[in-house]
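Sequence in, structure out. Go.
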Amino acid sequence: MKAFLIRFWSAAVSLAGIAGLYIGAVAIDQAAAFWIVMAIALVVGGGPPVARKTLEWVSRIRTYRSLLARVAQAEISVEELRGSLAAASKEARDKWEAGIKEGYARIRGMLLALEGEPPPLVAIGEADGAVVLIARRLHGNEVGARYRVVDEYARETKGVVEAHEIDDESGTVLLRCVEALAEPFWRHLLFRAPFDTSPPWGVVLARCEYDIGPSTQPIEEPAAPISRITSPEVRE
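Output:
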């Protein structure tokens, strides 16, 4: 109530003063002077707020372009994040699918290897830039079977190979490395395959056994089928 009375009397006194000034100016035929005084009072009274608002709007106009640039950059960042998320999702999906395929190939290869004795190695060759082992086919050897490549004397497993093709005419099995555990061994075989196709000395194939439990080893993509052999010579 007190605040209302203060505003009321302030407005009443101000309006009464303005009315008195106007009546006095009209009485002495100086109405123009009244309006000049009112204009000056308006400028003096409203100048600081108007100036502050003007400066505020000028500042906003100056920062508007930088704000637009920031918004544009933020939109670009959002699109980049979306693209990264999509790529990460695809990569995770691809790895999951590759893991399923590799797990199936491992179990199938291990079971197929139980159908017959491991085939004896008779030669090596090169196919599509990778070394292949050539073995004499025995009863029960089938495509998809997996075998360990073992150094009999060092008692060391050099890797795992999978039977990819069977040549009924020559009675051989072509095996390709799907898991290299000794990289120098496989690089050496690839190096000499074009001019020396003899099998590695002291190396034999053994049935492959996988730990079916949880594994922390990275999953490799399954190898592609062999389409050609550049060193067809087979030594009996």
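Check: DSSP finds three helices and six strands in the chain. The first strand starts at residue 121 and ends at 127.
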